[in-house]
Write a structure and sequence with these properties.
By secondary structure, this protein is of the alpha/beta class. The protein has two domains: 57 residues, no CATH class; 178 residues, Rossmann fold (3-Layer(aba) Sandwich). Helices cover 31% and strands 26% of the residues. A seven-stranded mixed sheet has the order 7-6-5-8-9-13-12, with helices on both faces. Strands 1-2 form a two-stranded antiparallel ribbon. Strand 3 and strand 4 form a beta hairpin.
Length: 237
């Protein structure tokens, strides 16, 4: 059955509009590299004006860098552990820290091959642990317990996760194991949950005190941030 011509024309106009938006419409500033320009789309489905064309930083990386500049999230003489290291964040942390180690479950992707649910490090090893969009992939109760164990007194876990603040409870279903099912239910083929605002309760049960940090509306416009995205600063209780 052929599509009616008016609908076909409407769809083509819509596709052309989408195509024009892929390279950005408004100049933004990147707090990671200091460059300004038109941010490009990233992801599937695409998030418009998400990626800095100069350094590749995404919205979460720019928010983390901006908040570090404003609040000093990381001590400059610190021992830092960074999971699933994103290059732009990795380079910043390696530059400012006393001792930086990256970790990933997959061999060859980081300095150390580590299972976040069963870490090989001794107790109280690190001043800061950085965990950006990792906890939604794993058994977070076991992971948070291990992160608390290897964190020094007075240290901090810097965490970011996909979160729906309008949901009281996290959405998860352990029977959903196929990649296409996880993509449909949790937004990505290798996610095992989508967090609600009870994420804070999960972190607190692991022995942390949680502080929320985010950017303003002006920050979202200037730096191309996701409105309301949060950095959770978690300190041992």
């Amino acid at each position: 059955m052929r599509m009616p011509l008016p609908r076909l024309a409407s769809d083509l106009i819509y596709l052309a509009k989408i195509a024009r938006s892929l390279r950005g419409k408004t100049k933004r500033q990147c707090p990671c590299c200091g460059q300004s320009g038109y941010f490009t789309a990233f992801g599937s489905p695409p998030r418009f004006e998400a990626r800095c064309p100069s350094c590749g930083a995404l919205e979460r990386h720019r928010l983390l860098m901006l908040l570090d500049q404003r609040h000093g999230l990381f001590r400059r003489d610190a021992e830092i552990l960074h999971f699933a290291p994103e290059p732009i964040v990795r380079d910043h942390l390696r530059r400012i820290s006393k001792n930086y180690r990256s970790a990933d479950l997959q061999p060859g992707r980081a300095d150390c091959q580590e299972n976040i649910e069963a870490l090989s490090f001794p107790d109280a090893t690190f001043d800061h642990i950085v965990c950006i969009h990792v906890l939604e992939h794993v058994d977070d109760a076991r992971a948070l317990s291990e992160l608390r164990r290897v964190l020094k007194p007075g240290g901090s876990l810097i965490a970011m996760v996909p979160i729906i603040e309008g949901w009281e409870r996290t959405y998860e279903d352990p029977s959903i194991v196929r990649p296409e099912g996880r993509d449909l239910h949790f937004g990505q083929h290798d996610h095992v949950r989508m967090y609600g605002r009870d994420f804070r309760d999960r972190v607190q049960r692991a022995g942390f005190v949680v502080e929320d940090l985010t950017g303003s509306g002006d920050d979202a416009v200037r730096y191309g941030l996701l409105r309301g995205e949060t950095v959770f600063v978690c300190k041992p209780a």
